[in-house]
What we know:
CATH topology of the largest domain: Rossmann fold
Largest sheet: 9 strands, mixed
Helix content: 10-25%
Amino acid sequence: MTIRSWLAAATAGLIVAGTLVAAPASAADAPYKVLVFSKTAGFRHSSIPNGIAAVQALGAANNFTVTSTEDAAVFTAAGLSQYQTVVFMSTTGDVLNDAQQTAFEAYIRGGGGYVGVHAAADTEYSWPFYGTLVGAWFSSHPAIQAATVNVEDRTHPATAHLGATWTRTDEWYNYQTNPRSSAHVLASLNESTYSGGTMNGDHPITWCKTIDSGRSFYTGFGHTEESYTDPAFRSLLLGAIRYTARRVDGNCSVAAAMQGESFVSTGGVQIATHAPAVGGRTAGYIDNGDWASYTADLTSVRGVTVRISSAGAGGTIEFRSGSTTGRLLGSVAVPNTGGWETFRTVTASLASGTGPLFLVFRGNGGSLFDVDEFTLTR
């Protein structure tokens, strides 16, 4: 074999080997250190070794070194200072004592990073700061099954490689609270595509936030051993690590939800009462051609998430700039959700524009759907 042929073959082999870590874009990162912490005081996931191995492989290909431990003694100011981010790999239960909690909180608030994977949400229930850090605590889960994931933010480095939807098999956590009001949701579950979701149609599964100078990222993915050989999931993990380690930036600002019933003006829409709605009320009694306007900053808008319910025909929501016939920024299809008290979340991409924002409702006939709340993503 000639030297040229050998080099070509070697290069091809490296490309094939690199597909599992999907990492060439971050090869120029300045070197850094990552701590993977996998102590469990409750249920122990069999996928923990797979998760550690995946992070180690990502590190080898992306210029960071990995230390894995179940010894909480590393959680001191000096021990944590050498790491740019800490991955809680399916930790469970009470894993840190009071002094270790104090050191970790100071590390995060001072600019450290945190990546919580799957059962990290089943950890430290009695420590309020950890609840803020992880975003939401575990409540329950159904059997492992396939579900459709709605990717709400396709610009963040952890999710930019994904399509608008992603069908995968995992163990789907329900959470005690909805993190949307305090975190930037990157991906959510379509509860109509699997059995056992209990979050009334608005089911975040991956999110991020900032806490003082620190960065936090959580994903509910990662129960199964197979998750850690999935190139798409490994790319998500890599993006989370790079984001929290400050090797790349991403938008994790919390967008304020706008209530459907808080319209400035309307044509045909009335306020309806539904106990499961946020605040107990929605924009309802919506017929074809009705509209509602809202005061909203439409600059830098990229998408929208809408919480809706329908026992009627469903239809379409048009998002328009300036008037009911103004520039169409985008639209979202609204299905029949099975009842007026059954809420689901639907998402769509939007273009930016100038306010006010007009929602124009289309469909066949009357009693199309109700709008509980919507959030513009930027």
